[in-house]
Amino acid sequence: MGSTNVDPRDLVLAIVAFNKEGTVEGRTYLQKLAYFLNEKLELGVEFEPHYYGPYSDPIAMATNTMVALGFLDEKDERFPAGPTDIFEPRRYTYQLTPAGHTILAELKSWDRTLFANIKEAMEAITAKEECNYEFLSRAAKMFHLLKSQDKPMKGSELSGAAKDLGWKLSKEDIDRAAQFLGELRLIKELT
Question: Which of 10, 59, 76, 93 is deepest in the core (most CB within 10 A)?
């Protein structure tokens, strides 16, 4: 599939609508779903390395815009801070509003193929039982590292490259991520 320049706002609406139960729990999870959709479908959204792996300002801004326009409902759940927490622990949960469902239906009527591809890819990404923000973050970090190199990398090289970005990838993380990335047909195998 060739590169498509999808509007990040459309992608955010589709991610929330097509995720299990029409809900996305967590901004990091939303970012990682967007990252893998972007990579699998070549959607043309920009991502850069960040603390939890690849991060997209356009996706973050699109999410905020969709909330501000009333197309997404955002719930803020706060958790008690522990003695070592630097930041106030919280999780944002997103669902489409009735207006969001209406706009998504209109978007789907304009480009049925794109939205069918997004839905199919979402199902493939979220099919793993362990598909949560932590797992997707590790897999996204590994894929970002592999993609940024012009050569195949060994597990030890991946760990070192991750460390250079302030990331940690254990051998188990790398093995599980490699299996996941292979299932998505994003990589063949690690050397």
Answer: 59
